[in-house]
Amino acid sequence: MSENHLDAQLRNDFGKGAARRARRDGVIPAVMYGHGSDTMHLGLPSHETFLIVRSNPNAVVELSVDGETYLTLVKDVQRHPVSRNILHVDLLAVKAGEKVDVEVPISVVGEPQAGLTHTVETFQVMVAAPATSIPEFIEVDIEGAEDGLVIHAGDLKLPENVDLVTDEEVDILSVAEIQENEIPEPEAAAEGESEGAEAAEAAEEASEEE
């Protein structure tokens, strides 16, 4: 069973005004759906919800609603673009034994051979995993990797009972020689700065005309 537990309340007031009032009162608007049941509009305790989702985008949460218990998976968290405060949460009702499709981040460990560097092409992959044992990340070990190595999604070592959904041919990571970046000459750099300043002035003038 999930270690995360929230006491949720049913919401009967909808719309932007109601959502703002709820957030002012420390309640995050949320919806729960899945398994053919009607969508439930809920209010979640703000601080407790933040602690659960801050480091795990695929958190499994046990909800208590009017004496009923539901096992849910966090599917989407909407945040304010500036403050990053949680505005809304989407929850998918799940069962302990079923598999769900989730995106899991890639975690790179180790270093390639001297003079080489790695580039991550895909930062997360879609997998099908048991709802109650979703991996926090998929590890990719590049210790001692040689020049030219390319790791595809099909090369990933997945935990037991976890299946790859992403196309096996998708590039995950590549290893190559470190490229030295040329430092521009002072005159060229100054010329670039001048052109950038002119472009900024032109954009400002255009905005004033509108």
UniProtKB/TrEMBL annotation:
<keyword id="KW-0699">rRNA-binding</keyword>
<feature type="region of interest" description="Disordered">
    <location>
        <begin position="177"/>
        <end position="210"/>
    </location>
</feature>
<dbReference type="GO" id="GO:0005840">
    <property type="term" value="C:ribosome"/>
</dbReference>
<feature type="domain" description="Large ribosomal subunit protein bL25 beta">
    <location>
        <begin position="99"/>
        <end position="177"/>
    </location>
</feature>
<dbReference type="InterPro" id="IPR011035">
    <property type="entry name" value="Ribosomal_bL25/Gln-tRNA_synth"/>
</dbReference>
<dbReference type="InterPro" id="IPR029751">
    <property type="entry name" value="Ribosomal_L25_dom"/>
</dbReference>
<dbReference type="InterPro" id="IPR020930">
    <property type="entry name" value="Ribosomal_uL5_bac-type"/>
</dbReference>
<feature type="compositionally biased region" description="Acidic residues">
    <location>
        <begin position="179"/>
        <end position="210"/>
    </location>
</feature>
<dbReference type="Pfam" id="PF01386">
    <property type="entry name" value="Ribosomal_L25p"/>
</dbReference>
<protein>
    <recommendedName>
        <fullName>Large ribosomal subunit protein bL25</fullName>
    </recommendedName>
</protein>
<comment type="function">
    <text>This is one of the proteins that binds to the 5S RNA in the ribosome where it forms part of the central protuberance.</text>
</comment>
<dbReference type="InterPro" id="IPR037121">
    <property type="entry name" value="Ribosomal_bL25_C"/>
</dbReference>
<keyword id="KW-0694">RNA-binding</keyword>
<dbReference type="Pfam" id="PF14693">
    <property type="entry name" value="Ribosomal_TL5_C"/>
</dbReference>
<comment type="subunit">
    <text>Part of the 50S ribosomal subunit; part of the 5S rRNA/L5/L18/L25 subcomplex. Contacts the 5S rRNA. Binds to the 5S rRNA independently of L5 and L18.</text>
</comment>
<dbReference type="InterPro" id="IPR020056">
    <property type="entry name" value="Rbsml_bL25/Gln-tRNA_synth_N"/>
</dbReference>
<feature type="domain" description="Large ribosomal subunit protein bL25 L25">
    <location>
        <begin position="6"/>
        <end position="91"/>
    </location>
</feature>
<dbReference type="InterPro" id="IPR001021">
    <property type="entry name" value="Ribosomal_bL25_long"/>
</dbReference>
<comment type="similarity">
    <text>Belongs to the bacterial ribosomal protein bL25 family. CTC subfamily.</text>
</comment>
<keyword id="KW-0687">Ribonucleoprotein</keyword>
<dbReference type="InterPro" id="IPR020057">
    <property type="entry name" value="Ribosomal_bL25_b-dom"/>
</dbReference>
<keyword id="KW-0689">Ribosomal protein</keyword>
